[in-house]
Amino acid sequence: MTGLTKSYGKVTAVDQLDLHIYPGEIFGLLGPNGAGKTTSILMMLGLTEPTSGTAYVCGHNATRNPIAVKRKVGYLPDNVGFYPDMTALENLSFIARLNGLSESYAQASAKDMLHVVGLEREMHKKTSAFSRGMKQRLGLAEVLIKAPEVAILDEPTLGIDPKGVDEFLELIKQLSREHNLTVLLSSHHLHQVQRVCDRVGIFVGGKLLVEGSLEILAHNLQQQKGISTVITLDHAQGDTKRFAEALKALPGLRDLKVDGFTIELKTDSDTTAMAVRLLVNNGADIVSVSRNDYQLDDIYNTYFENCITTDNAYEKSKGFFKRYQ
Amino acid sequence: MPMKNPRVSSKDTNKRPSFPMQVLVRKEIAAHIRSWRFIILILLIVLTFGASLYVSSIGLKDAVSNMRDPDQSFLYLKLLTTTDNSIPPFHVFLNFLAPLLGIALGFDAVNAEYNNGTLTRLLAQPIYRDNLLFAKFLAPLAVVGTLFVALVMLMIGGGLLGTGVRIEPQELLRIFGFTLISVLYVAFWLSLSILLSIRFRQPATSALTAIGIWLFFTVFFPILVNLAIRPFLPNPNYISEQEYIGYNELILNLLRLSPSQLYTDATTTLLMPSVRSLGPISMEQMVGAIPAPLSFRESFLMVWPQVSGLCAAMMICFAWSYYIFMRREIRS
């Protein structure tokens, strides 16, 4: 994807998005509501025309040749719906037939898929009776039935209970590994993304702020903010101020706080071990050492803090009212 | 969770490919036939058909033996048009019911898919957008066409069994012409309601608008034309016959802007072979004319403008809906 831009009137929903997703990986598109995730996905599928820029999916231009793209990409929309008066099997084999499978084949593979996603007992139930989680599973089956090279899942875990989410994500991971499926997963639940994604991109206000694997992102953040280490000393230490002098010798020290029996350090690189050694050499009795590892939470918060979502939210609510005209 | 290889079963996707269009139309037809809405409509149509046929079969003997009527030899056409005025004949009924049929089958064609969240899913499949629109249009037409043909065949069959009178080839042509025009009329209302279903997000809004348009054309339009013309109409006693005919022609032409007027003109002419003009005829024109039925070809030529008008109206609606649907944002 290069320079993908979509504007609705004055508002730019997606601004100059450049993104490359490698085959076989699970990529997590993270962002708050209204960040432009769904819009980007629709542009990738050729369902929305980009204002400028082009998206290439499996070597096909998504705007010029959407049929070729749709043949290779399975898409699970964020609020997936099915024909309520058809059974799960009928819904699924209808989609299979739209993808060019013959009637008997569509039936057979629809049955297979329902086994894969664990809906084999609900096969002949009408989908109007389905719960949200069951619908998501059926949606996943529908994505898989076309044997896609790329699966795009828009908020796939929304509205499923925690256990269901676990199973669902495990299923996605497993399928991706087994069939070398490229998965693009959009979500605002960082913990879920953290569990399955190889790489993530953080998407705020129509802009992709960072992308990379979680380790790299965490590392970058550490570079930026420094590593903080908290060391607690034994109470029988007496005056702890004397250790401060010794710790000042640490390389790349940014901040040092000594408060009673706890010492807080902030350094450029990981110097926890060195600090402990220094303290022990100075005769300190250390009770506990904890090093702050940056989790996705921190990454997420850091990037979301410095973004403006207000006018985006306004635009969304306007769209909401427009719909009821 | 049992795991199977999802790719195994879909390896030969290209062996015997099924065309997406065909699959879509089949699904639409199945959905219509299974729906309560359609069953109720069928019951309504069959009931009115049965009732008007019953009334006409009672008065049939008088109608056929009426020597002054030039159409008396067309038994099967009489079966469709004779009435004792207690209920209108079938083609007049259909003038009211066909719009209802078209509207009921099309008012939620696109917006229901939209609201169910199935539209995004459907369009993410490798099909062209217009395939969906064509399927939404063709499937109800196929169903309605089958229904009408079946009814008409039943009528002919019943007539053959009951009276034993041979059916003229001309009668058969006229009856099928009538069926065709009725389907065309339904097609116009269907394309109008599909247009509204794309335009409005709520099925209720689009249904109400469609019914509003239907009421306007059947009830208010003739009144409106009358009201609009009357202030300009001089006293008929003070104008020449020529002018009088001119005004009459004007009113008729204005009325023909309404599709139901077009349908009435077309079906009346086709079902009553003795109808030789749809406007007023002067005495000079009538002099020397033998009251004899027209041939099918002549009747058909006479309604050709009406038929093409209906066709054009339908196509405008369809092209418009095509235009707005292709450009529509697909997100729910």
TrEMBL record, chain B:
GO cellular component entries: plasma membrane
Keyword terms: Membrane, Transmembrane, Transmembrane helix
One GO MF term attached to the UniProt entry: ABC-type transporter activity
Transmembrane intervals: 36-60, 92-112, 133-155, 175-196, 208-229, 303-325
Matching PANTHER family: ABC TRANSPORTER PERMEASE (PTHR43471), ABC-2 TYPE TRANSPORT SYSTEM PERMEASE PROTEIN (PTHR43471:SF14)
Protein name: ABC-2 type transport system permease protein
